[in-house]
Structure formats: C-alpha cells, structure tokens
Amino acid sequence: EDAERGASADLAVVEARRRMLEEYVSFRESMDEDAEEEKLELGLPDDIVAELLAAKQLPTNEDDEQVIE
Amino acid sequence: MRPILLSGHERALTQVKYNRDGDLIFSTAKDQHICAWYAHNGERLGTYHGHVGAIWSVDVDPTCTLLASGSADNTLRLWEVETGKLLHTWEFPTAVKRVEFSFDGSKVLGVTEKRMGHLGSIVVFDVDLDPKAEQTDERSLTIICDESKATVAGWSYLSKYIIAGHEDGSVSQYDAKTGDLLDNVPVHELNQPITDLQWDSDRYTFITASKDKTAKLISARNLDVLKTYPSDTPLNSAAITPNKDFVILGGGQAAMDVTTTAARQGKFEARFYHKIFEEEVGRVRGHFGPLNTIASDPTGKGYCSGGEDGYVRVHHFDAGYFNFYYEVERERMNKLAAEGASKK
Q1: TM spans, by residue (chain B) (predicted)?
Q2: ipTM of predicted complex
C-alpha cells in the first residue's frame, strides 16, 4: 500500500512537471510568433548580428565595390 | 573538469561577461581596471586602464569590437577591444552602476547612481561600432527614476523595451524609443534591492537576483513572473544557461555580517536550478567570499563567477551536465524525434 501511495505521489510530480514543460514550450512559441511579427513590422533583418559581423570582416572591400558599381 | 582560476584583480569582482563567441571573458572589479581573458585556458589577453574609481559594470558589443564600462569615477567609457585604446568618455554627476549594449550594438545604456541632489537615471547613447568613428556626446534618451532608483537595466528582444530592476525590489518596463514607463511590478520583497538582471539568448525573458534570497524568471513582454528560485542566502547574481534549461544563482552573506567566517572559507557556492521545474539540481563551491557576479557562456559550454575574494573561476561543463535530463524532458525529446522521423 505504501509503495502504491509512493507511486501515485511520483505520478503527481511527473504530471506537474509535464504540465510545466508544456506551458513553458507554448510560452516560448507564442513569444517566437510575436517577435517574428514585430520584426517584419519594424523591417528588421532576420539576423542583424550576422550582417554586422560580415560588415566587420570586409571593411577594406568597400572601395572595390564602389569601383565595380 | 577543474575550474580555471583567474587571478588578475586585487579587489572584489563586480561583473564578468563573455563575448558572443564565448571565447573571451571580460571582468571588472573595485581595483579600477578591466581584464580580458581567454575562456579556454584563463590566459590574460590584456587590461584596460583609465578609470580612476571602482568599476561596476562591463559589456561587449555583439561583434566584439567595443567594450563599455561604468565606474564610480562617474564615467561611462568605450574601449577598443583589440587594442585596449580608450575611445570615448561620457561624464555624469554620479557613478555609473550598470552598462549594457543593445542586441545589435547600436546603442548603449548606463544606469547612474542616485545621490544628494541627483535622481537615479538610465541614459542611452547611440554607438558607432567603427573604432575610428567619432562618438556622440548627445544622449538619445534619459529616463529619470524618481520612485526608486534603478540598480540594473537592459534591453529586451528587438530592443523594444528597456527593463530595469530597482532598489525597492520592483521591475519596470520602459518603451525603449520614448522612455515612457509602461509598467512597474513589485516582483521581489519590498525594499530588497534587485542586484542583477540577465537575459536569455532571445531576450524574451530575464532573470532577476535579489537580496530577498530569490531569483525570478520574468517575461519581458508583460513582466509576468514565470518562475521563482528560492535560496537561503542574499543573491548578487543570476544567469540563464543557453541550450540547457538551467539557471545559475550566486550570492552569500558578506563576511562582515557573519560570525563564523572561517567555517565558510572556500564554501561559497554557485547554485544550479532547473529553469522550468524550479528545483535545485546542484551546487558548485569554491569561492572564499560571496559570489558577486555570474555569467553564462553564450555557446553553452560553461560559466564563470566573480567573487568578493578577488578571483574569477571559469568552469567548463562536463558530460554529466550535458546528459542531465528529467524524465519528462526525455519523453518530449523522444516524442519530437519520433514525429520528425515519421515526417520523413
């Protein structure tokens, strides 16, 4: 009987964790949707940092590009 | 793996910060210089000299070009990471307690101290990431904290909000463009100061540490308290780990406040909690005084802590950390894997 009680207590804990995990995952998903929408509205690039890093690595090529244009 | 001990500071650490690639660590202390270190072996890369007061805060832009620092000498300074050259100095009537770059590095904010005749404030400057560029002296925004001074502040996702933690235990959400106060919520016990505020990698949520012995995970969108992590000691710092759902808390009773100092030597601990289940999962001891600051490696490989004892301890996670999952996490991973396989 004790073992049974223990098992059902464990089950309750596991159920609670399962619920917390689901809640958290759906929270992140709703944030992703919101942020994605706002990024489009604001006309922000998908990965601004990647662009900044690319710009940093090619500082001397600017002149060349201007010649080509 | 054994931690790497960085001994380059002579006074208590105030903040540690990784760059975006996780290969460099920047540290500030009350000893007036900033140190840069290689994260993988603890070798010192350089120091940044110029401040003439304790340095409270440091941040590095996402391209690892510029460093910002805030000091008790009433200045916020910009440095070139690579050369150590001081590029710009902004002066204030009071100390600068916290600095943070926006996610794209286009702006930097500073939290200024409250003092007789001066209210605490949050100031914002536009930044040009080109080290050769002339930086502007013009503030792009000033937020006055007339209710309770801000102790920490940072930029949310898309730099939409400036979020501040206050001395009275509340957090504020400001419109990052106009500086308008949108919301203020008392998340921690009244008049228990918020000592740290750090972001997840998306900047959707932040974690606050407080002297009320708890840390809280809060949504930047509406300041909802999502999770609470209770501990048994006043907290100075809290960090969120990327890739794995943990948070790391640090603090401790200052030596002058405890009678049994000797017994506590080397026993000050960083505490790991599961971010979602709010349960403590482990502790890492080592510091000889309270942990003042903790930072997560943005690549998820490790973390470091800075102590009142003047040391930075760098930890690289081992397999046990990466393999640790709760049963329900495994269950979910297996479910997702099965779904992915059936789609193919």
Answers
A1: none
A2: 0.91
